[in-house]
Write a structure and sequence with these properties.
The complex is a heterodimer of chains A (about 210) and B (about 350).
Chain A (H helix, E strand, L loop, with lengths): L1 E4 L3 E5 L3 H13 L7 E4 L3 E5 L5 H16 L13 E6 L6 H8 L3 H9 L2 E7 L6 E4 L14 E4 L3 E5 L2 E4 L4 E3 L2 E5 L20 E6 L1
Parallel strand pairs in A: 5-13
Antiparallel strand pairs in A: 1-2, 2-4, 3-4, 6-7, 6-13, 8-11, 9-10, 9-12
Helix pairs in contact in A: 1-2
Chain B lengths: L2 H6 L3 E6 L3 E5 L19 H10 L8 E5 L4 E4 L3 E7 L4 E5 L3 H5 L44 E3 L3 E5 L7 E6 L30 E3 L23 E6 L10 H7 L2 E3 L7 E5 L14 E2 L4 E3 L7 E3 L6 E2 L3 E5 L4 H5 L6 E6 L4
Parallel strand pairs in B: 11-19
Antiparallel strand pairs in B: 1-4, 1-10, 2-3, 3-9, 4-8, 5-7, 5-9, 6-8, 11-18, 12-13, 12-19, 13-16, 14-17, 15-16, 15-18
The chains are: A alpha+beta (about 210), B mainly beta (about 350).
Amino acid sequence: MIRSAGEHGLIVETGTLEVSHRLDALLRDDRPRGVVEIVPGPETVLVVAPGADRARLRATLERLAAEAESATAGAAGSGEPDLVRIPVVYDGEDLGAVAELAGLSPDEVVARHTGRELVVGWLGFAPGFAYLTGLDPALRVPRLGTPRTSVPAGSVAVAGPYSAVYPSASPGGWRLLGRTSLRVWDVTADPPSPFRPGTRVRFERA
Amino acid sequence: MSGVLARGAARVVEVLAPGPYATVQDLGRPGLAHLGVPCSGAADADALRLANRLVGNPEGLAGIELTFGGARLAFHAGAWVAVTGAGCPLSAVPLDAKATAAAGTSGTAVPGEGPPGTAAPGEGASSAAAPGGAGWRAPAAGAGVPFWVPAGTELRFGTPAWGLRSYLAVRGGVAVEPVLGSRSTDSLSGLGPEPLRAGTVLPVGPVTGLEPIVADVAPPRGPRPAVLRVLPGPRDDWFAPGALAELCAEPYTVSQDSNRVGVRLGGRELARAREGELPSEGMVAGALQVPPSGQPIVFLADHPPTGGYPVIAVLVAADLPVAAQLRPGDRVRFTTHRRA
């Protein structure tokens, strides 16, 4: 289903993050005329296209959404997305608390955090802030009751089903496992972030 | 003021006072929402585009966005400028003779006064005038007209009679360092230059190759009725039947904590049909997002690129600049608009 978001926006309901990523890849590979923004979310892709022929765009989106949903669409887009390796010093303030909440030792927390490949679901909250999906379910812990007023850039954290690297210093309520020296947000770089929806990510003990 | 500025008549605008809140704005950073970057840019983009056109700039050059007027700007070199948006009384005084001018003996200009002659403006023709010296002549400062600000002038903005945001374009554009392709201050993410403060010095870009100044006057559009047309959706089905009718039934009042992110409104509560949180999804400018309080927020230029509260309706694009001019305390009505 495609929903209208004003005169310039269309929201394609994909139902799943995987379909959102495939549709995003299809749209970026062959961007329809007039499309300015393509914003994948967990169950949707927003397409913003001021001045586009709306009926035509809607038809294109319907076709591409069907393609993205079909089982054979695994190869959609430009091949396998990149793998970003993130070296982490696991000395975060909340490592102990996360271990306790998870009923694990701190070493086991680290093993589970580094033990799986994660995938960038989408970015939001702040420029370059990527919600990393695929976290080991054992590491699902609630956010802090009271968010910190400032979390340093490069902090590696978990909350709910997600992990993240804070791209710049900001307030935040996620639980800190450690820190990385890898810059994940640099406005002088092109692109400014190594992440985009669909990017594969691997945490590694530094 | 530094000696360099005084002697060299550098092509800069120096902020003597920013008023309540002032920023550099162009048309923002479209195309980066998937990286979590808000579009930002002039809240009333139409007004910035117009100001730029009036001084022969490309529409997307950076200008200054004032909130509730109140700014004082120093021009050490002459420049063509135009002011649009919220209707601010403007006056100009020689930089070094403020006391005299403040007494009203010279230098004030009537808003809306005619253009400064029809002769093609020579770039820097008057820049030889010594700041505050004998060469200084009061410019025909007014809203909606391009006018020449001679070297050594302080331009003063009063409180707007209507509207919230005024725009100053200067021929050549404000040329601060761009960040991710834009010079806009993004109040949500902190990208771009700091908001203006007393002492901020803004470089002005080159004027070579710009279009000649052809417009004599673009009449200020004045206050418009505070009626905003909305297109239902994308998530109107998350609300109780009749919620759209509720939205349009009675005026809402603009809240004090409105800003460049959004216009916060108080009025009839919009009841949800479903509980729970909407999975985060892309947001557009003009969206009426409804948090659990049931009081809608109209998203402006610095809105977050994604959000988890449902959007009951989205403003017609032409009404976004109207929303951007609403002041705290204003009453505003909504009406549903059927697509042509």
